[in-house]
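In the previous lecture we treated proteins in isolation. Real proteins rarely work alone, and many bind small molecules. This record shows how such a complex is specified: first the sequence, then the SMILES for flavin-adenine dinucleotide.
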Amino acid sequence: MPIDFDVEPEFQEQIDWVEKFAKEEIEPLDNFMRGGRTKSGDPIDKDGWRAIRAYTDGLKQQVKDRGLWGFHLGKDLGGPGLGQVKLCLLNEKLGRTRSGPGIFGCQAPDTGNMELIAHNGTEEQKKKYMEPLLSGEKHSAYSMTEPHAGEPGEFKCNAVRDGDEWVLNGEKWFTSNGANADFLIVMAVTAPDKPTLEKASMFIVDRDLPGVEIVRNVHTMGTSLRENYNVTSGGGHAYIRYNNVRVPAENLLGEEGQGFVGSQTRLSGGRVHHAMRAVGVCTKALDMMCERALSRKARGQLLSELQMVQQDIADSYIQLKQFRLHVLYTAWLIDKTGAYTREIRKEIASIKISAAKVNHDIIYRAIHLHGALGMSNETPLADMWMSAPQMGIMDGTTEVHKANLAKLLLRDYDACEDLFPTYHLPKLLEEAQDKFDRVINDYLAA
Ligand SMILES: Cc1cc2nc3c(=O)[nH]c(=O)nc-3n(C[C@H](O)[C@H](O)[C@H](O)COP(=O)(O)OP(=O)(O)OC[C@H]3O[C@@H](n4cnc5c(N)ncnc54)[C@H](O)[C@@H]3O)c2cc1C
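The predicted 3D structure, ligand included, written as C-alpha cells:
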C-alpha cells in the first residue's frame, strides 16, 4: 500500500483556514483574556463580558458555517466524520491556542463525555444529555479520581440501590469543569466485593441535585489559592462531595458493574486528542525558540550561531517530528481498525508517555533560550510549561502507562527454554556452520 503524506486539496484548504483563523481570531482572544483588562486599564465588566460572549458566538458560527463544529464527531453524531488522521491535522493547529477547542465545540471534558454517552448511553440519555453537549448548550464533567486515590482498585465513592434510585456517597476531586458543569459523570463502587474491573458503575448526575457539594474549585499551580474558594468560577478541577445524592435509576450509564471497562472509550480517545494538541503546543514553542535565537545577541554573537543553541533547536525539531509521526500513525491505525484494539492501545500508551516528555524537553529548551523573559509571565511559555507535568499525570500517569505498555509488548514474546538466549552467538554460529558445511559440500560435489 502506498504511503502518502498529502491530503486532498479541499481538506488542505480547511487546514489552512483553521491555521489562519487560530492565528488571527483565537490567539488575540486568548491574549485579551490573559490580560483581563481593556486598553484603558479597567477590568472587563458585565457589559464587556456580554460583548466577548457575543463575539465568541460569532466565531463559533463561522466554524459551523465551514462544517467544522464538533469536528471530532462521526457523521452519526452530526459531526463531519473526518476520522482521526484529519482530526489530528486540525487539532495540531488548535493546540497553539487556549480557547480554540471551545470555539470549535471540541473541548475536554465534553468531547470524552460525548463519546462515553454515545457508546454506553440509552436513547433517552443521548437525547437528554448528549445532544445538548453536541450543540454546545450544556457542559459536563467527569468525576472519577478521588482525593485519596487515583487508582480504580482504591476508590471508595459508592452507590447503593434504593427502589427507583441510586444513593451516592463519597468524595471526588480534580473533576475538571465540575463547578460549572450542567451534569457530572460519576464513577462509583456498586459491588465492592467483585474484582476491580467489575466493581464500579457510571452515573449521570445533574449538578443541581441536592447533596452535590463543591468543596473547593481546585486550580493548578500558578493560580492564587484564593481562587479555589470561588466555587462558582469557571475553569478549575472541582473537589466534590456527594452527600446522599439520589440519582434516578435510569441515569445509570452503561451496564451495572461495567464502569471501568466503559470508561476506556472516553479515556483512550481523550489521550489521542491531547497528544494531537501537544504537537501544536511544541510547534509553537519551537517557532518561538527559532525566532529568539535569530533575534538575540550574547557577547556580540547571535544565539543562533552558538553550537549549544543549535543543538537544542535540532534536538527539538527531531523529537517533535518523531512524536508527530507517531501520533499520526496512531490516528491512521484507529481509522483503519475502527476500535481500540490491543495494537492501538500500545500506540496510545506510547504517545501519551511521549507527549509529556516531548512537551517537557522542548518547552524547557524554549524557556531556557528566552532567559529571564522565558521565566516571566509575559510569554505563552508560562502556560505551556504547565502542560508538561500535567500531560504526565492526567488520564493516567506516565509510570502506569509505561507498565501497561511493557505488559502489552511482552505478550508478543515467549521465554527462551534454552540456557542461553536465542541470539547467543556461539549457538547461532554452530547452526550456521552446519548449514554452510552443506552448502560448500553440495557446491563441490556438483
Ligand atoms: C490537569 C488535570 C486534570 C484532570 N482532570 C480530571 C477529570 O476531569 N476527572 C478525573 O476524574 N480526574 C482528573 N484528573 C486526575 C487524574 O486522572 C489523576 O491525577 C491521575 O489518574 C493520577 O492519580 P493521582 O493524582 O491520584 O496520582 P497517584 O495515582 O496517587 O500517583 C502518584 C504517583 O505514584 C505513581 N504510581 C501510581 N501507580 C503506579 C504504578 N502502578 N506503578 C508505578 N508508579 C505508580 C504515579 O505515576 C505518580 O507518580 C486530572 C488531573 C490533572 C492534573
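Summary for your notes: The longest helix spans residues 259-295. The pocket of flavin-adenine dinucleotide is lined by residues 109, 142-145, 149-151, 174-176, 220, 237, 390, 393-397, 399-400, 403 (CB under 6 Å).
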